From TrEMBL:
<feature type="binding site">
    <location>
        <position position="472"/>
    </location>
    <ligand>
        <name>ATP</name>
    </ligand>
</feature>
<dbReference type="InterPro" id="IPR029351">
    <property type="entry name" value="GAD_dom"/>
</dbReference>
<feature type="region of interest" description="Aspartate">
    <location>
        <begin position="195"/>
        <end position="198"/>
    </location>
</feature>
<protein>
    <recommendedName>
        <fullName>Aspartate--tRNA ligase</fullName>
        <ecNumber>6.1.1.12</ecNumber>
    </recommendedName>
</protein>
<feature type="binding site">
    <location>
        <position position="437"/>
    </location>
    <ligand>
        <name>L-aspartate</name>
    </ligand>
</feature>
<comment type="subunit">
    <text>Homodimer.</text>
</comment>
<dbReference type="InterPro" id="IPR047089">
    <property type="entry name" value="Asp-tRNA-ligase_1_N"/>
</dbReference>
<dbReference type="InterPro" id="IPR004365">
    <property type="entry name" value="NA-bd_OB_tRNA"/>
</dbReference>
<dbReference type="InterPro" id="IPR004115">
    <property type="entry name" value="GAD-like_sf"/>
</dbReference>
<feature type="binding site">
    <location>
        <position position="479"/>
    </location>
    <ligand>
        <name>L-aspartate</name>
    </ligand>
</feature>
<comment type="function">
    <text>Catalyzes the attachment of L-aspartate to tRNA(Asp) in a two-step reaction: L-aspartate is first activated by ATP to form Asp-AMP and then transferred to the acceptor end of tRNA(Asp).</text>
</comment>
<dbReference type="InterPro" id="IPR004364">
    <property type="entry name" value="Aa-tRNA-synt_II"/>
</dbReference>
<feature type="binding site">
    <location>
        <position position="217"/>
    </location>
    <ligand>
        <name>L-aspartate</name>
    </ligand>
</feature>
<dbReference type="GO" id="GO:0016874">
    <property type="term" value="F:ligase activity"/>
</dbReference>
<dbReference type="Pfam" id="PF02938">
    <property type="entry name" value="GAD"/>
</dbReference>
<keyword id="KW-0436">Ligase</keyword>
<dbReference type="InterPro" id="IPR047090">
    <property type="entry name" value="AspRS_core"/>
</dbReference>
């Protein structure tokens, strides 16, 4: 029979009606001859009562957890003593039960999925995906896709699919390579992003483009990374930075409103990269709580405390009162993030005790005035090379957030922009300059003359990152549209004219044929849904993810292939066992 409705779509208006429901048995209980079932589908769960004199009793008696069943019966209110309010106050009195399929005993209890080892959940992902928590995440994702499509279509964006097999280009991570059978010894690369193709769509006159693009990066994994992932990719012509940012703010606000009923305050605040690093030690600061660094380099310059006296930067953060055990753990985190150590002081009246207190007698009053540290509170310091000092203290700041639940008092979601990133950064390993975002990012027009000088590290990029609760969920820039500027950029990162043409010749040619000013952005869509759902890993919002070793435990990929398949593409495997 055709089902009357999905379980979650039943309403009090159905009371007294005969309904037909189909789904999985969530639980079965026998109570004094009565059988109680919980029937579950994607939309919800309902209690089913099967009485001993019912024609349905024998079939209901066969049911076990995760059997697939069809239930026909009367939808009615539960006894008044059992009511708690809402749709749980209704149940089905079964008149017919049909077993649609049996099920083996599951390798883990679905209701206890959160406490099950992740590798077990991933091995039996088709069972894990039955859990309401997982289904809520994927439904949220689906609704977000619908909201994105609705908004961008209304704004005149054109959806275009770009190639999955393309040319290997240097974009910051290793490519996944695909051998070409028809071109022996040559390889495609799976795209790390559609960057060049979307820029060429602007050259082609499409003006506004978007795509939910599948991308691939062969890099080390962590909780917010996968080797294959989804980007929401967008590009716009005849725009300046403010045009791109305002469009993105409207889109993000629309997605939150349509999927979660959350109104994000507009416009999103903006912060320059240097301010973000100096105040929070991160280019993606979590601004749900306000715990800033204080600059105190000048107080120790040339002083008796040698660890601080010649440091490029000395930064301090005012924390609540901490135990020595807590300080030791925070120091471990600071060292893990590049600091030589974590100096500390505890405020005692108008001075300090503990830690480095014997070195700060002269600076005590000024430290209290600058930091506002509370009585009994703790000052935590990092010192040394600027980037390491701020980065390590940034990690300590996040550890303090988690230790004292500092974000709980702020907004549930805080979205901001970080702008004015450096165009270039120096790679100490190679001894050369490299790009911070990618080599197609436009420099600030006021800084163009710094290319090729000893001040090119000061060039500001017209780049911007979208930050949500301390996660970078989007990144983009105004692009280079002038071939002469693109040539300067390639030269700055050490590409010879021949190397640039070998890697990007087709794109450099395209720039010569009337390229409009343009800019865009890509959202890390998996990461966005992770934060929106409250999940702690993007694996919780992807239907069939890889584990933290890049392995699909369900399909057992990657795996060896037949020798004949390798021979078809002219390859053999030689493993280095040294």
């Amino acid at each position: 029979m055709k089902r009357t409705a999905m379980i979650g779509h039943l309403t009090p208006a159905h009371a007294g009606q005969t309904v037909t429901l189909q789904g999985w048995v969530n639980r079965r209980r026998d109570l004094g001859g009565l059988i109680f079932l919980e029937l579950r589908d994607r939309s919800g769960l309902v209690q089913v009562q099967v009485e001993p004199d019912s024609a349905a009793f024998a079939d209901a008696d066969r049911l076990r957890a995760e059997y697939v069943a069809e239930i026909e019966g009367t939808y009615q209110a539960r006894p008044e003593s059992q009511r708690k309010g809402g749709l749980a106050d209704f149940e089905v009195i079964a008149t017919r039960v049909k077993v649609l399929n049996t099920a083996k005993t599951t390798p883990f209890e679905l209701e206890k999925g959160d406490s099950v080892a992740e590798d077990i959940r991933l091995k039996f992902r088709y069972l894990d995906l039955r859990r309401p928590e997982m289904q809520r995440n994927l439904v949220l994702r689906s609704k977000a896709v619908a909201a994105v499509t609705e908004y961008l279509d209304r704004e005149g964006f054109v959806q275009v699919e770009t190639p999955m097999l393309t040319k290997s280009t240097p974009e910051g991570a290793r490519d996944f390579l695909v051998p070409s059978r028809q071109n022996p010894g040559e390889f495609y690369a799976l795209p790390q992003s559609p960057q060049l193709f979307k820029q060429m769509l602007m050259i082609a006159g499409y003006d506004r483009y978007y795509q939910l693009a599948r991308c691939f990066r062969d890099e080390d994994l962590r909780a917010d990374r996968q080797p294959d992932f989804t980007q929401l990719d967008m590009e716009m012509s005849f725009v300046e930075l403010d045009d791109v940012l305002s469009t993105q703010e409207g889109l993000m606000a629309h997605v939150f409103r349509e999927t979660m009923g959350v109104d994000l305050p507009l416009p999103f605040p903006r912060m320059a990269y240097m301010d973000a690093m100096n105040l929070y030690g991160s280019d993606k600061p979590d601004l749900r709580f306000d715990l800033k660094f204080t600059e105190v380099t000048d107080l120790f310059q040339g002083g008796e405390f040698k660890a601080f006296a010649s440091a490029q930067a000395v930064k301090v953060i005012a924390a609540p009162e901490l135990t020595r055990k807590q300080i030791d753990e925070l120091e471990r985190i600071a060292k893990q993030n590049g600091a030589g150590g974590l100096a500390w002081l505890k405020r005692d009246g108008d001075g300090f005790t503990g830690g480095i207190s014997k070195f700060v007698t002269a600076q005590a009053a000024e430290l209290i005035a600058r930091t506002g540290v509370a009585q009994g509170g703790t000052l935590l310091f990092t010192a040394g090379e600027w980037k390491k000092a701020v980065g390590a203290l940034g990690a300590v700041r996040l550890a303090l957030r988690d230790l004292f639940d500092l974000a709980a008092g702020g907004p549930q979601f805080h979205v901001s922009w970080v702008t004015e990133f450096p165009q270039l950064e120096f790679d100490d390993e190679s001894g050369t300059w490299t790009y911070m975002h990618h080599p197609f990012t436009a420099p600030h027009p006021d800084d163009l003359d710094l290319f090729g000088t000893d001040r090119q590290g000061e060039i500001r990029a017209q780049a911007y990152d979208l930050v949500l609760n301390g996660f970078e969920v989007g990144g983009g820039s105004i692009r280079i549209h002038d071939p002469a500027v693109q040539a300067k950029m390639f030269q700055a990162i050490g590409f010879s004219a021949e190397q640039a043409r070998d890697k990007f010749g087709f794109f450099m040619d395209a720039l010569e044929y009337g390229t409009p000013p343009h800019g865009g952005i890509a959202w890390g869509f998996d990461r966005l849904i992770m934060v929106m759902s409250g999940a702690t890993s993007i694996r919780e919002v992807i239907a069939f993810p890889k584990n933290n070793r890049g392995v699909d435990l369900m399909a057992l990929a990657p795996s060896p292939v037949e020798p004949g398949q390798l021979a078809d593409v002219g390859l053999s495997v030689a493993l280095d066992n040294s």
